[in-house]
Write a structure and sequence with these properties.
By secondary structure, the chain is of the alpha/beta class. 37% of the residues lie in helices and 18% in strands. It folds into 2 domains: 151 residues, ATPase, nucleotide binding domain (Nucleotidyltransferase, domain 5); 192 residues, ATPase, nucleotide binding domain (Nucleotidyltransferase, domain 5, 2-Layer Sandwich), CATH 3.30.420.40. A 6-stranded mixed beta sheet has the order 5-4-1-2-3-6, sandwiched between helices. A 5-stranded mixed beta sheet has the order 9-8-7-10-11. A hairpin with a 4-residue loop joins strand 1 and strand 2. Helix 8 runs parallel beside helix 9. The longest helix has 27 residues. The radius of gyration is 20 Å and the shape is globular. 49% of the residues are buried. The mean pLDDT is 95. The chain binds 5'-O-[(R)-(carboxyoxy)(hydroxy)phosphoryl]adenosine and zinc ion. The site of zinc ion has 6 residues, from helix 4. 5'-O-[(R)-(carboxyoxy)(hydroxy)phosphoryl]adenosine binds next to helix 5 and helix 6.
């Protein structure tokens, strides 16, 4: 069964056709990052307009030469004016093709990405159904959530961030240090060069706080502190560090567009960036270790834009191997927002959603589960 997946929840206009939930037959992503870069973040109005301009072309090229048996679309969470564009396009297309529409949760779809593979490849891992219970971590610009995945669609949030998502923490630090938008990939590159210049050692790093919330704070909303993170203390620590160090103030505006490899890996700036990334990575690794000790999981499934981070991938691989379970991560091209994850997850939901999705509205604050 071929499903067309459409994704417009944020700043990527994306569509893909996926066979039987896993084999990606086509995958088209138009990224709006250059449009939002001058503003240092995603501007909803600009996102919506760009989706309107690009959606027809993106969907057409994803569908080129493919038979489509159903249409799937993200209906939340995300930016309302952006979600509306994809949802309306998908409704119109499902009606005109005479096929079912399947409405999909964007965060759940990120956790499907490790199961995707390209046309003709051997599947990289068993089907999700053979790996329950799994521990899931969705880590992106909007989310940092740990899920107990007991079965298809049976997600329970067991831990989360109390404030910023990890991606947001990367992006804000990058902005503060004058490194441009989006921050995650730039921080990753600079930190990688720092680690390489220091023989992989973290010894010279600045000991930024590792984001462990205090027990009993109301923001935990009943979740255990040992499975939650808070990045507000880390951000404040970075700000204080910048205020104490004039060499980090008034960054050269040219840095915003410069290739991050131009930054000296032995500089104070590179050390600050690598230390900040390390604090995020170790906070996430620590909560993951705790989660893995609480239940005998068969697999650890990672998804979301921040799962592209090279240091996070390396450290979480160690965490999973300590627990003697596989870490399932997507290929880089499926880590950021894409239509293949929507089409892939929809295959497992095809009997639940179906034609009823034609009545669905966008759900900007949609939760998982
Ligand atoms: O999943 P995604 O594409 O969109 C959301 O659903 O939010 O994630 C985008 C986030 C951004 O905050 C971006 O800075 C971050 O993922 N990101 C990274 C890396 N690549 C993208 N963060 C850290 N390291 C990276 N290599
Ligand atoms: Zn996403």
């Amino acid at each position: 069964m071929n499903i067309l997946g459409i994704e417009t929840s944020c700043d990527e206009t994306a569509a893909a056709v996926v066979r039987d939930g896993r084999e990606v037959l086509s995958n088209v992503v138009y990224t709006q990052i250059p449009l939002h870069r001058p503003y240092g973040g995603v501007v909803p109005e600009i996102a919506s307009r760009a989706h309107v301009e690009k959606i027809t072309q993106v969907v057409k090229s994803a569908m080129d030469g493919q038979d489509v048996d159903a249409v799937a679309v993200t209906y939340g969470p995300g930016l309302s004016p952006a979600l509306i564009v994809g949802l309306n396009a998908a409704k119109g297309l499902a009606l005109s093709l005479g096929v079912d529409l399947i409405a999909i949760n964007h965060i759940e779809a990120h956790l499907h990405t490790p199961f995707l593979y390209d046309r003709g490849e051997t599947p990289p891992c068993p089907d999700p159904s053979e790996l329950y219970p799994s521990l899931g971590l969705a880590i992106s610009g909007g989310h940092t959530n740990w899920f107990d995945i007991a079965g298809a669609g049976e997600y329970t949030t067991i831990g989360q961030t109390l404030d910023d998502a990890a991606g947001e923490a990367f992006d804000k630090a990058s902005k503060l240090l004058g490194l441009g938008y989006p921050g995650g990939p730039r921080v990753d590159k600079i930190a990688k060069a720092y680690l390489a210049a220091n023989g992989g050692s973290t010894k010279g790093m600045i000991p930024f706080p590792k984001g462990r919330p205090r027990d009993g704070v109301s923001a935990l909303a009943g979740l255990p502190a040992e499975l939650c993170v808070s990045f507000s203390g880390l951000k404040t620590a970075l700000l204080r560090h910048v205020q104490r160090n004039p060499d980090l103030q008034n960054p050269d505006p040219a840095l915003q567009d410069a290739d991050p490899s131009q930054i000296d890996p032995n500089s104070h700036l590179a050390c600050v960036i690598a230390s900040y990334q390390e604090a995020i990575v170790q906070a996430v690794a620590d909560r993951t270790r705790t989660a893995l000790r609480r239940r005998g999981y068969k697999a650890f499934v990672l998804g979301g834009g921040v799962s592209l981070n090279s240091r996070l991938r390396a450290v979480l691989s160690e965490v999973a191997s300590e627990a003697r379970i596989p870490l399932l991560m997507a290929k880089p091209r499926y880590c950021g927002d894409n239509g293949a994850m929507i089409a892939g997850l929809a295959y497992t939901r095809r009997n639940i959603s179906g034609g009823a999705a034609l009545a669905v509205d966008v759900a900007p604050s949609l939760e998982v589960g």
